[in-house]
Amino acid sequence: MELLRVQTIAHESKDTTIPAMFVRSETEQPGTTTVKGVKLEVPIIDFSNPNEEKVQNEIMEASQKWGMFQIVNHEIPNDVIKKLQSELPQEEKEIYAKPVGSESIEGYGTNLQKEVNGKKGWVDHLFHIIWPLSSINYRVWPKNPPSYREVNEEYGKYLRGVADTLFKSMSIGLGLEEHELKEAAGGDDMIYRLKINYYPPCPCPDLVLGVPAHTDMSYLTILVPNEVQGLQASRDGQWYDVKYVPNALVIHIGDQIEAASPPYDHLKINFVFFFFSAVGGRIPEMRRSITFNLILIS
């Protein structure tokens, strides 16, 4: 059975016509629910600050008061990220598609999350494990570009360093030994999953969502956004566009850390719901976007 991809629908959509299954109710449409003219400026933490204690305190404060923050000067080379942002022809993507009816989340696909009220998100994705080595299924890793595996492994190495710093800082902030929170999350056997989201241009961006409002069922999510506005967060009951910071990583505290109490019940981290609107949602031109989520889960 042939599956209809959002990329194909976007290509075939004319002017302002899109299938009804993508059109959200008025209470969900980003065109009516977004606070206009205000960008949510979540905390920005400079990972290059030589004052390690200051960085640790900033991470803890942002985790407790926001549940999300951005980090800059994280030492992941920008060219490594750029190399991952190549795009394959649709027919080649289908080589890595998840089989119909498969319970696996790995591979290329369209419907990752359960549909809400019969609606679908305006997004296609590739999902696969990048760590530990024993859990990797290279059959769902694209063969093109030829450097994909090498670049992915280099990218993963840097990201594990970022994750280690985050776990260490939160552990110390909790009054624990610096290794305890990471060990509770699975230590070196913790699974790192990479999700590459592709949001095709949409003729009606104010009516659709790339991903509906949600929290992440992980310990941490490390997001690599781009300059196309799409990330939103709920703060004090209102939805805001999150200010884009070039070359920053967006860190989101996941549900599994939220649930880590006791013995960590003195870590009070707010739920912060966020979603991606369809790409081009609040800019005049329709543009595609590719974002990367690194999801850490035991």
From TrEMBL:
<keyword id="KW-0408">Iron</keyword>
<dbReference type="InterPro" id="IPR050295">
    <property type="entry name" value="Plant_2OG-oxidoreductases"/>
</dbReference>
<dbReference type="Pfam" id="PF14226">
    <property type="entry name" value="DIOX_N"/>
</dbReference>
<keyword id="KW-0560">Oxidoreductase</keyword>
<dbReference type="GO" id="GO:0031418">
    <property type="term" value="F:L-ascorbic acid binding"/>
</dbReference>
<dbReference type="InterPro" id="IPR005123">
    <property type="entry name" value="Oxoglu/Fe-dep_dioxygenase_dom"/>
</dbReference>
<dbReference type="GO" id="GO:0016491">
    <property type="term" value="F:oxidoreductase activity"/>
</dbReference>
<dbReference type="GO" id="GO:0046872">
    <property type="term" value="F:metal ion binding"/>
</dbReference>
<keyword id="KW-0847">Vitamin C</keyword>
<dbReference type="InterPro" id="IPR026992">
    <property type="entry name" value="DIOX_N"/>
</dbReference>
<protein>
    <submittedName>
        <fullName>Flavonol synthase/flavanone 3-hydroxylase-like isoform X2</fullName>
    </submittedName>
</protein>
<keyword id="KW-0479">Metal-binding</keyword>
<comment type="similarity">
    <text>Belongs to the iron/ascorbate-dependent oxidoreductase family.</text>
</comment>
<dbReference type="Pfam" id="PF03171">
    <property type="entry name" value="2OG-FeII_Oxy"/>
</dbReference>
<dbReference type="InterPro" id="IPR044861">
    <property type="entry name" value="IPNS-like_FE2OG_OXY"/>
</dbReference>
<feature type="domain" description="Fe2OG dioxygenase">
    <location>
        <begin position="190"/>
        <end position="277"/>
    </location>
</feature>
<dbReference type="InterPro" id="IPR027443">
    <property type="entry name" value="IPNS-like_sf"/>
</dbReference>
